[in-house]
Design brief:
histidine kinase; EC 2.7.13.3; five-stranded antiparallel β-sheet; 48% helix; Heat Shock Protein 90; Beta-Lactamase; ATP-binding; two-component regulatory system; 15 strands; 11 helices; phosphoprotein; five-stranded mixed β-sheet; Helix Hairpins
Length: 482
């Protein structure tokens, strides 16, 4: 059984270079073709005018040979000066008429006794050029002129008696057509060469113009965000490329920071889980080695449960941090009485901090209402209160103050520390798994609370910040838009 494979049509990719080259080449080619065509037509017209001028000159010369001697017409033609009209050549012809009767013919026309050149009525001192098939069968043109014979006698000129003549000369146009053909071929070849030359030059110019973009692409290929801090550097600045380069550098720097944070977070998670896992292994090894020791078996189960609960707390907090940092959490906004909400939170935290009622000083209006997601607000405020109660000095009160304006509600939680935090600590306080030295020996502190708070604030468009206050006090400021 043969399987028929259907190939999907390949989508042609757009190319800036190809589009620029094609468009510029097309515009310049149209301009060049227009110029060449105009020049070609002008040269063709000039050559044809020269041919007609040649006919006019010959006609004028022949007219001067016709004399009127007191009413007697004479035609003084010398064949040695105009051999083209000789019988031997038979290439050009002329014929003279007087009163519609043939007065004189060229020797070349004598070979064709029964053939006359064209003759029709036109005004005196006018001429007309027509296409005409010559007596020898060649394609040619004929010039018909109506003129007055020159009078030699002065008395005759004053008498008013004139004799009019009609002169027709004919010449082949083969040489004219050959010249016109050569001119057309030369211009066509020149035009084709010019079009290809223009495209070649445009391609070179566009390639040179796109060099900074290609150079930027090559630099991007060499980037490695897993290594040392790297940015895209420019040997020379290009006005159109610099904004792209700057934004790419910002993106690269941000991703390098995220990568480093991810490495640190992975290391910290491994460290946090390594300790309880080591404890589980140690307890299990001791229990296996001394199965009959009542001191070990009496506390083994409770120790295992406590370590497992610590691991579960770490995993649950990590999962909450991951959910808070994504759009997976659906917000359900509702009206909340902030005073009652904080009172309920303090009651829930009393099992961890028995002195919370004595230490927490509330400054919040009884009827103050806000609109927020209850789960997110509960998680944020419970972590902030727990953090303040744990790190704050037990002998100093914790102040929680709420200020509401037309545009926002600001919740400030302030507690006293043994010593103020450094600027570096203030910047890192919301980082995942970051712990102060005082909490590293506590098995219940994992450095995830404020990181969860920060992620939930970003999800809800809240702002959270930490500032040092006088007398070694730390203020955590939560701002909610109204």
């Amino acid at each position: 059984m043969s399987l028929l494979k259907t190939e999907l049509p390949k989508t042609k990719r757009h190319s800036i270079k190809r589009k620029l080259v094609n468009n510029i080449s097309a515009v310049l080619s149209i301009i060049l073709v227009t110029i060449f065509l105009t020049v070609d037509l002008s040269v063709d017209s000039w050559v044809e005018n020269q041919f007609h001028q040649s006919l006019t000159n010959k006609s004028n010369y022949l007219k001067t040979l016709v004399k009127d001697h007191n009413g007697k017409l004479e035609f003084d033609f010398a064949g040695e000066f105009m051999s083209e009209y000789e019988q031997a050549n038979a290439s050009e012809f002329y014929q003279l008429w007087h009163e519609q009767q043939t007065f004189e013919k060229s020797d070349s026309l004598q070979l064709y006794q029964n053939i006359d050149l064209p003759n029709f009525a036109i005004p005196i001192n006018e001429f007309k050029i027509i296409d005409y098939t010559l007596p020898n069968g060649e394609e040619g043109r004929a010039m018909i002129s109506h003129f007055i014979a020159q009078q030699e006698d002065e008395a005759a000129r004053g008498s008013g008696h004139i004799k009019t003549m009609v002169l027709t000369i004919a010449a082949p146009i083969s040489s004219l057509n050959k010249v016109l053909l050569i001119i057309d071929v030369v211009f066509i070849l020149t035009c084709i060469i010019a079009v290809f030359g223009v495209r070649y030059l445009v391609t070179r110019i566009v390639n040179r113009g796109l060099f900074p973009l290609n150079n930027l692409n090559e630099q991007i290929k060499l980037l490695d965000i897993t290594g040392a801090s790297q940015t895209i550097k420019s040997d020379f600045q290009v006005e159109e490329i610099e904004p792209i380069r700057n934004e790419l550098n910002k993106f690269i720097t941000t991703n390098q920071q995220l990568y480093q944070n991810e490495k640190r977070l992975t290391s910290d998670i491994a460290h946090e889980l390594k300790t309880p896992i080591s404890e589980l292994i140690s307890l299990s090894e001791v229990a296996l080695r001394y199965p009959d020791d009542e001191r070990i078996s009496a506390t083994y189960t409770s120790d295992i449960l406590a370590i497992s609960q610590r691991m579960k707390t770490i995993v649950n907090n990590l999962l909450l941090l991951q959910r808070a940092g994504s759009s997976a959490v659906e917000l359900n906004l509702e009206s909340v009485n902030l005073s009652d909400f904080i009172t309920q939170l303090s009651n829930e935290l009393q099992f961890k901090h028995a002195d919370i009622k004595q230490r927490l000083l509330l400054n919040v209006a009884t009827e103050l209402m806000i609109t927020a997601d209850r789960f997110c607000l509960h998680t944020i405020l419970s972590n902030l209160l727990d953090n303040a109660l744990f790190y704050g000095l037990s002998t100093q009160p914790i102040n929680l103050q709420v200020e509401q304006t037309e545009y926002h509600t600001k919740i400030t939680l302030c507690n006293a520390l043994a010593k103020p935090l450094s600027e570096q600590q203030l910047e890192a306080i919301f980082a995942p798994l970051y712990q102060l030295d005082s909490s590293r020996t506590n098995n219940q502190r994992h450095g995830l609370g404020l990181a969860i708070v920060n992620s939930l604030c970003n999800l809800n468009n809240f702002t959270i910040s930490a500032k040092n206050k006088p007398n070694s006090r730390l203020a955590l400021i939560l701002t909610l838009p109204n």
